[in-house]
Automatic annotation (TrEMBL):
Protein name: Aminopeptidase N
Domain Peptidase M1 membrane alanine aminopeptidase: 226-440
Top EC class for this record: hydrolase
Chloroplast is among the record's keywords: no
Known cofactor(s): Zn(2+)
PANTHER family xrefs: PUROMYCIN-SENSITIVE AMINOPEPTIDASE
Amino acid sequence: MLRTDTPVTVHRKDYTPPAFAFEHVDLVLELDPARTVVTNTLRFTRQAPGPLVLAGEELELVGVSLDGKPLADARQAADCLTLPELPAQGTLEIVTACQPAANTSLSGLYVSNGNFFTQCEAEGFRKITYYLDRPDVMSTFRVTLRAQRAAYPVLLSNGNLVSERELPDGRHEAVWEDPFKKPAYLFALVAGKLECIEERIVSASGKEKLLQVWVEPQDLPKTRHAMDSLIHSIRWDERRFGLELDLDRFMIVAVGDFNMGAMENKGLNIFNTKYVLANAQTATDADFGNIESVVGHEYFHNWTGNRVTCRDWFQLSLKEGLTVFRDQEFSADMMGSESGRAVKRIEDVRVLRQVQFPEDAGPMAHPVRPDSYEEINNFYTVTVYEKGAEVVRMYQTLLGRDGFRKGMDLYFQRHDGQAVTCDDFRAAMADANGRDLTRFGRWYSQAGTPVVAVRTAWDGADGSLTLTLSQSCPKVGIETHPGTPDKLPFHIPFALGLLDADGADLPLQLAGEHQPGATTRVLDFTEAEQSFRFINLPRGAEPPLPSLLRDFSAPVIVDAEYSEAQLTFLLAHDSDPFNRWEAGQRLTTRALLQLVADSQAGRELKLDPALVAALRTVLNDQQLSPAFREQALTLPAEAYLAERMGVADPAAIHRARQFMREALARALQADWLAAFEANATPGEYSPDAVSSGKRALRNLALGYLADSGDAAMQALAGAQYQSADNMTDRSAALSALVNTFAPGREAALADFYQRFEQDALVIDKWFALQGMQRGTVGPQGSHAGKHTIDTVRALMQHPAFNLRNPNRARSLIFSFCAANPAQFHAEDGSGYAFWAEQVLALDAINPQVASRLARVMDRWQKYALPLRDRMRAALEQVAAASDLSRDVREIVSKALAP
Ligand code: B3K
Ligand code: ZN
């Protein structure tokens, strides 16, 4: 990897089309862990004057020839190979060697547990051969793999297998051809000792397809759910978007060492084992759900990403935002009910607010389509992915499902086989529906989370309600630099309803309309301030109650003055399930922020009985699904609360939230116990939405019960740990024991380790639970003296800990630094010192993983003193280190930028 002290910024405005086209690439790889030789034969056509500059990193150049004759004037530099004076057309042969076993970055060609894998997005192909490694250079590929048969019996690459043969000296060969043109980032190969389960299905148009899931032999029994998820994804894309699998064969391969979730290589998706392997004993309901969604995501990329790809990496959200939207819709449909869909929506919005909103307010804030980057891998962000998905969802909200489908159809009709831009996508949506979406384009060019303030004016005599919306979105991150243009209003689809005094939805009629329409209305809110007058409402002193931004129709913050009584009313009556949940979150957030202030001021903490009563009503409402009740009774996360404060105080937030948990645990003990008992799931384990919803509520109840401090309740956790027949129940019980330091805690931790010692993904859970554990400083200030940092440091010495394996590093280090705010932000700065050490240690091994960890400090300026100063010192310590990767350097220098 290139390490440099002079960062180079790449700008979107500097895009120029490639000077050469590659019609066909023929790759021959002599696979050897120590030194793999790659022969790259490519047919090119010149498109513009100038030399051919091929990207390459960490490559040993063996030779270059043009049309069979050695090329003398090829110039090799650290990151490229320049070939001056090439003819208009020709064939180049480039022979290089790389060292897969020494490649710890897990980008390019690498070895994991003795097998070969590749990861090329975004710029990993250049570590395999010299190439125009950019997404707008698309070519057909033929790949020949040669390796020792004994060590590498399986040889896979993209597309179709065209031949296999034996070679001398125990070697063998497989040849693969991908008929579809693709950019190099979608290239993949896998070689090693793997086995598969397979299925044959017939596609909507009657063609037979072979589906395979490849894993290490011992993992075969854990592949069924991934295969089912793949089949469901294929069927869903046929039904919802009329999109079929285009290859005869589609393969998923699982690997234990992987930088992210999975990768959509054409016909050969490579997955982190975490998103493939599952059975009842080892995977939780959440794992089953994540597998379904990631399998769907990568499969859906086959059209949104692969058939139509990105012109340049600034357009990343073109494929990622769209594909996340598709996987969200897929998972929502798989929930099988309206209430299930709402639960999925709630989960997605939680992530957006907890992770994306902070990103959008911090030093790394960037538009969904960034304008510049130093290291593209740093821009695989929640903004590009999750906010990008919200942007795509807004098209559907504005155009309706049918209008959105028309836009998608036109997009493929126009751009199949091309590398295009976010503007091309927006044009297809606009043209297919005859709509002007010019202003909508600002969602791609402006960063930040807009705040929408809502004012209402009620005319009781006339029965009209005037709603005035005003939006603001101050400059953030890079937008604050001098010379950046002022920000302009966004096009916000603002969905709302009005409730009458009984909680029923009122028909909505805007002034100027002849008759009332539906009870949920999407307003086109496009100006800085706009008023909407609803007429023909029931007259009287009391105005109807607005239910704002239904189903979270835009990624904005709504600033509305609701009284507690109004929120309680919405929580009880809103017909929009998302907003029912939202009302509850507003209530608990408000109460929690008050508790934080009380705690900071040393006032006694008290819980409002009205809030307890409102939550009790929801908890006991049998009309609501258990999954929904679990969402409603889950308190806002500490990270979310921190974001809502002017100056974040993690210790006070934790005290307040923990106080509320314990108070609710005691006040509702009988109700929790009833929910715990009513939601058992006897019989064979099934991860379906109804059963997992029951387990979620039951385990939430268990967590609260354990927090009551009552020994009998904690014994319930101990008993559940012992008797559980599935990982959801077992790990929830273990978590309750761990966090309450209940008797039996140490024995359960030891038992868990021993039981699952052979299963890396479960041992990751064991590390993660401990990285996230609370300290023993109780709400009354009792110092039992246990700080999580001590546990984490001790676990770093555990024989099963391994910094080189990203899942393991994430399970302990990231769990502590990113998911345990109260302990990470210990006042003595011990968490920050640990962070700096680990960022530097990881950076020497794997810059992509290191740079993710570096992001934990993004919001340092938001923290109270002395934390803020200590965080800056830790950032400065990392920034001062020599030999930083481009990845980490970009993150820390942006965090420290004035
Ligand atoms: N496209 C890949 C992500 C690649 C990340 C490179 N640092 C997985 C996905 O979004 O489906
Ligand atoms: Zn993706």
